DNA sequence: CTTGCCTGAACAATCGATTTATCATGACCA
DNA sequence: TGGTCATGATAAATCGATTGTTCAGGCAAG
């Protein structure tokens, strides 16, 4: 047992890199370029069926997987899309993420996560993510003030699609994918009107945010058609959080001096606000839906598990994510604005809304 | 205004690729390799301070960002980590994701999302993600039966860290990062015991799942120390969902024939189950915490907004994500098991638990 | 019998950064 | 003056796949 005492006498030559195209080509007794063309089903390739079969066979045999870095370098295409999220803890946009992820996967793309705050504060991260050619395109959420201002700059460096809310600036810097916000709140309002509510209020996000303007519009439209109006004293505009919903309802309720001069139903600008409103109602001993009906925009997994379960309208977030990816992969004119109207917003009537009681 | 009428008379030679290292080197009047070494702060580089300054200056001036594909090809390192998630809609693991994302970013890494179901069903996606050298390492959630069986295979192909729950198989295939599950439920139980509860039940996930075994152990330990036991008729083991929590409480309540022979407090195996339990209690007119105290594992953003707000114990999910990334970046022996005990689980006492009432 | 065309395939260049090996220059010492 | 050595920098090879160009051979037409 003396000879060959070395422990690693003949490890296969290529240990790290796995199987290369050259290995496949060698096994199939063809050149690397030909193997590449066969494996990529190049329509212009001219090879006998036997040759093709040999190449495919060899690739299968060796478990060949193309090296993505090499492919990327040559083709200037990473197979990655960036998704810049604002607040991942919010349940609202997970569906959007899921939709984007699924559609990306269907095209053999993967998603890389970026964070709004990080990109704003960490220059290094920004450079790597935006300028480093790390991704082929970017999906960003509009409507986040400070970040909106940099979207134009980003869109110049990289194909970009904005989802959800258009930046405030008037010039269109990138294609937009959005839900039919107006239809959504209109639907909620009409639901409440049908239940006999006449005085309906709104607790929503910042008054001048693009999203709020649209959602508020939907409420106003539906009310106007029914001959009613949205009164200033029945609205509160804070942020998009549960805490804001709670504070908003407390503020409104503070104005209610008697049981007659007050709204019988309130709409929450998003599901977090709706949750906060339910909470505030419980704290203030306002019976829902007995004294007050509550409905909100966005249907999330939790809506039906709340007590009482929350009436909502669901936006096609998943489809928005899918569409955003599709637009990204088909380079779209930056002026294009896609409103997802199929499927339309859908009403989920639950226990938090009921027929208006006569005061 | 006739001359120069062409709109794009002299676009710079390199339009697509941006600034290359060669451009920087040329501007600084040095060779590309030297520029590379200076920019990467190679300790072995020998260059005069003036030369270094010139290179750095030129890079800054031109806005040079290294081409990641080229770097990756040469270094066999992508700068990406894969995070394989099971159900992104669940709020529970978002903190883990956030922790991982933050720590990755701090090391100039980015996260790519994979989906358990997709990797199980889509062979192409699996090959690209796992075998394609698309990522340098992988964080996977253990405890998802079918997927667990492939973790060993994955771990052979790629540096891997398992978070949360160990696969059932006894051999350790990759380092593990987990919270102190036993301490968490022990803490909840002790909180209830301190409130005077003596008979405490448990509604949790599948009985033989690794996570449940540990959580149940914590309950049993604390009860035993106080001279009590966990009765079989006070437990239900279904899935980890809100629906299961609801069904679990309904099952248990169905056994309660009089007000004396029943538990005064129940622990939910996770926050979803806790939410379902609150819902079932409301439906069954069981006052919480009057008739029944309810507490659950996992503190999420919603816990404090529920009615009543839910007592929970929070696990250090964020830190787990951070640690998982760190382990991945420092190639760790696969036998290592890291229990995050700093910070320890933390109790959030809220309105759903109260002093036990004498029956 | 040669020219020309088509088929089947190989050759060579390219993507951009890194890294190993090599070369020039000047200082210093014998 | 010649030789050694440290210093400063360059040349060339490499990572692996793709793509434009070229080449050899076979067959048909002139």
TrEMBL record, chains A, B:
InterPro entries found in the cross-reference section: HTH_LacI, LacI/GalR-like_sensor, Lambda_DNA-bd_dom_sf, Peripla_BP_I
Keyword field: DNA-binding, Repressor, Transcription, Transcription regulation
Residue ranges occupied by any HTH lacI-type domain in the UniProt entry: 19-75
Keyword S-adenosyl-L-methionine: no
Domain of life assignment: Bacteria
Single GO MF annotation: transcription cis-regulatory region binding
SMART domains assigned to the protein according to its UniProt record, in alphabetical order: HTH_LACI (SM00354)
Keyword Repressor in annotation: yes
Name of the protein this chain belongs to: LacI family DNA-binding transcriptional regulator
Provenance organism: Prauserella cavernicola
């Amino acid at each position: 047992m003396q000879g060959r005492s070395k422990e690693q006498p003949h490890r296969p030559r290529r240990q790290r890199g796995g199987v290369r195209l050259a290995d496949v080509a060698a096994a199939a007794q063809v050149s690397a370029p030909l193997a590449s063309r066969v494996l990529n089903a190049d329509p212009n390739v001219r090879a006998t069926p036997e040759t093709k079969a040999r190449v495919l066979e060899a690739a299968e045999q060796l478990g060949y997987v193309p090296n993505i870095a090499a492919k990327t370098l040559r083709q200037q295409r990473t197979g990655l899309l960036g998704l810049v999220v604002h607040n991942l803890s919010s349940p609202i946009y997970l569906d959007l993420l899921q939709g984007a992820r699924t559609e990306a996967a269907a095209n053999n793309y993967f998603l890389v996560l970026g964070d709004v705050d990080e990109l704003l504060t960490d220059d290094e991260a920004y450079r790597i993510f935006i300028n480093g050619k790390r991704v082929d395109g970017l999906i960003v959420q509009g409507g986040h003030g400070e970040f909106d201002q940099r979207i134009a700059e980003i869109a110049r460096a990289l194909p970009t699609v904005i989802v959800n809310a258009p930046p405030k600036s008037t010039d269109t810097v990138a294609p937009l994918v959005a839900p039919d916000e107006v239809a959504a709140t209109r639907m909620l309002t009409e639901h409440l009107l049908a239940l006999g509510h006449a005085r309906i209020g709104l607790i929503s996000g910042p008054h001048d945010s693009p999203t709020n303007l649209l959602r508020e519009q939907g409420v106003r439209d539906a009310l106007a058609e029914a001959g009613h109006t949205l009164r200033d004293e029945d609205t509160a505009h804070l942020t998009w959080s549960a805490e804001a919903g709670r504070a908003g309802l407390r503020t409104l309720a503070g104005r209610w001096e008697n049981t007659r001069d007050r709204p019988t139903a309130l709409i929450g600008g998003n599901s977090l606000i709706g949750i906060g409103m339910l909470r505030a109602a419980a704290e203030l001993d306002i019976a829902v839906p007995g004294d007050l009906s509550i409905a909100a925009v966005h249907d999330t997994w939790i809506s039906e598990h709340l007590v009482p379960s929350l009436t909502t309208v669901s936006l096609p977030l998943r489809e928005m994510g899918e569409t955003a990816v599709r637009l990204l992969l088909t380079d779209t004119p930056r002026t294009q604005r896609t409103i997802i109207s199929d499927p339309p917003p859908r009403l989920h009537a639950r226990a938090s809304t009921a027929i208006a009681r006569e005061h």
